[in-house]
């Protein structure tokens, strides 16, 4: 990025926080200079309405395509910036594929960034289930403005506090050991699928946001029918999101059979999570020993603030935290299985650092190669490809003027394979994330900081990121200490939807060392 251009944007960002009135500020002159020389908004290359409709119809260019493939094709055809006209009640949007534009957008967001997504889910929550979502908080993932800010401000100090995350180390470790035992003792012993990893991630998230064990790895459990159903519903939810949020859809005017099904999926999902929540609240009330795992845990703390906040956080965590974490760990394990020398190097670090099966904050803090392996796996197989924002100030993107209030979709996954940013971009090289004399770490380099954003950016970034990381670290430690991980079958296939989901056969073999 041109340094003068970058400076201009930084100045206008600072001013935005200093003074949000419409009065011109001294430094804005610099910012306006950039904008004045920019090309006009109306001149941005534009896809026509009929083209959008045709391309999503059967036999159309984008029909059945994964989202990442679709964005790659649009980028190749139109370049780094393209305007998508408003259609069927969806506002006009800019698709932005330029890495420095992405930086400009994110550096200039306000303290209440608006992310245009989950509109149909917002509809479901507000219109169909006001009993849960009708209060002052709304939700986290699908809410905007003051309502989002209010709940996120309550949730952040609980969810993002390092001490809180550390408090869960022991229970996540227990879950992981139970999970491994479950894999080893069932009929198809030593084989691990993506569904297994989904169950592990569900049990972990329930422990984190509901402070309870579902018991999915106990033989005598009766909770697994609901859990299995929930995993299917979440997967269907993310796939259906593409139909109503990306493909042209008339859902705002007419509820088709498919949209009614989408509503049913949301309802069934909410009902299952509500059953878990009600059971936890009941157990808390009765203070049944052994059931409520962590009396000072997240759910209990949020419950003290407001029951609705605890419910909203638990539901959004289930939706946002199960498939994402399972997809991430599938990609990471796949990379390690395909690169046995990296797997061995990681094992050496783990065996050298973790001397007993007990894990704690101190032992976990000294595993740089483990962290690098996780990052590199998420670079090659990111669970989430892109995000969106409504611009909070006037901007210049790819030399075009973008007025405040424009909806912009950015697609960082396209940067993850750029050779100029990640040399040998198709290779699994965890070393690129380790700072050394010979090698600069891209994540620590300011100019490339915005090229890798698996958990998003800024105040609207993933609220569960610390938990996702610690869950993955603990699983990798426990697996690599005891097993060689191998991959059976063809290359890993990913279906790119709102969350990227492994689509083909996922089959790892765990061989005892
Ligand atoms: C590897 C696993 C995960 C990945 C890659 C991931 C990624 C993301 C991304 C990219 C966003 C959007 C950020 C943005 O727009 O800037 C997001 C939002 C969110 N994530 Fe995660 N996530 C993961 C796990 C989790 C977990 C475990 C939880 C819950 C415990 C969670 C809860 C949420 C919530 C509630 C939001 C909405 C935040 C808001 O809008 O304020 N995520 N996540």
TrEMBL record:
| Superkingdom classification of source | Eukaryota
Q: Name one GO molecular function term.
A: monooxygenase activity
Q: Is Phosphoprotein there in the keyword field?
A: no
UniProt main location, coarse: endoplasmic reticulum
Signal peptide feature range: none
Cofactors named for this entry: heme
Q: What does this protein do?
A: May be involved in the metabolism of insect hormones and in the breakdown of synthetic insecticides.
Family to which this protein belongs: Belongs to the cytochrome P450 family.
Classification from the root reads:
Eukaryota, Metazoa, Ecdysozoa, Arthropoda, Hexapoda
Query: Where is heme bound in this sequence?
Result: 462
Localization per Swiss-Prot or TrEMBL? Endoplasmic reticulum membrane; Microsome membrane
Protein's name in the database: Cytochrome P450
Keywords, in A-Z order? Heme, Iron, Metal-binding, Monooxygenase, Oxidoreductase
Among the entry's GO cellular component annotations, what is one? endoplasmic reticulum membrane
């Amino acid at each position: 990025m041109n340094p003068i251009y970058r400076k201009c944007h930084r100045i206008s960002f600072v001013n935005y926080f200093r003074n949000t009135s419409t009065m011109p500020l001294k430094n804005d002159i610099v910012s306006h200079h950039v904008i004045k020389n920019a090309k006009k908004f109306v001149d941005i290359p534009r896809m026509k309405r009929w083209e959008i409709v045709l391309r999503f119809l059967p036999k159309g260019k984008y029909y059945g395509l994964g989202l990442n493939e679709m964005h790659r094709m649009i980028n190749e055809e139109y370049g780094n910036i393209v305007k998508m006209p408003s259609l069927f009640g969806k506002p006009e949007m800019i698709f932005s594929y330029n890495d420095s534009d992405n930086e400009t957008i994110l550096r200039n967001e306000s303290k209440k960034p608006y992310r245009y997504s989950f509109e149909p889910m917002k509809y479901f929550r507000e219109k169909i289930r006001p009993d849960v979502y009708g209060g002052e908080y709304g939700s986290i993932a699908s809410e905007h403005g003051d309502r989002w800010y209010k709940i996120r401000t309550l949730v952040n100090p609980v969810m993002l506090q390092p001490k809180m995350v550390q408090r869960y180390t022991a229970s996540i470790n227990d879950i992981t050991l139970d999970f491994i035992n479950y894999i080893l003792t069932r009929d198809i012993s030593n084989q691990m699928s993506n569904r297994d990893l989904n169950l592990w991630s569900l049990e972990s998230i329930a422990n984190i946001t509901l402070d309870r064990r579902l018991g999915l790895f106990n033989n005598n459990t009766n909770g697994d029918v609901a859990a299995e159903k929930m995993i299917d519903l979440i997967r269907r939810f993310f796939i259906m999101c593409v139909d109503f949020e990306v493909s042209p859809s008339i859902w705002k005017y007419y509820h088709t059979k498919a949209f009614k099904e989408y509503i049913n999926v949301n309802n069934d999902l909410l009902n299952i999570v509500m059953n878990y929540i009600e059971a936890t609240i009941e157990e808390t009330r009765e203070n049944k020993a052994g059931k409520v795992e962590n009396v000072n845990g997240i759910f209990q703390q949020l419950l003290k603030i407001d029951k609705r906040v605890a419910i909203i956080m638990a539901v959004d965590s289930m939706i946002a935290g199960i498939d994402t974490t399972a997809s991430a760990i599938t990609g990471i394990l796949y990379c390690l299985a395909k690169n046995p020398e990296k797997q061995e190097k990681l094992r050496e670090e783990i065996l050298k650092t973790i001397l007993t099966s007990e894990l704690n904050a101190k032992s976990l803090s000294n595993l740089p190669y483990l962290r690098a392996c996780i990052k590199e796996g998420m670079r090659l197989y990111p669970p989430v490809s892109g995000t969106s924002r409504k611009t909070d100030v006037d901007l210049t993107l790819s030399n075009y003027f973008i007025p405040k209030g424009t909806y912009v979709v950015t697609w960082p996954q396209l940067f993850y394979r750029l050779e100029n940013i990640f040399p040998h971009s198709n290779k699994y090289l965890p070393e690129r994330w380790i700072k050394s004399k010979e090698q600069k770490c891209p994540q620590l380099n300011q100019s490339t900081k915005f090229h890798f954003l698996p958990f998003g950016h800024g105040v609207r970034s993933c609220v569960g990121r610390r938990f996702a990381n610690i869950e993955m670290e603990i699983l990798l430690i426990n697996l690599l200490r005891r097993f060689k991980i191998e991959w059976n079958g063809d290359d890993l296939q990913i279906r790119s939807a709102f969350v990227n989901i492994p689509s083909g056969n996922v089959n790892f073999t765990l061989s005892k060392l």
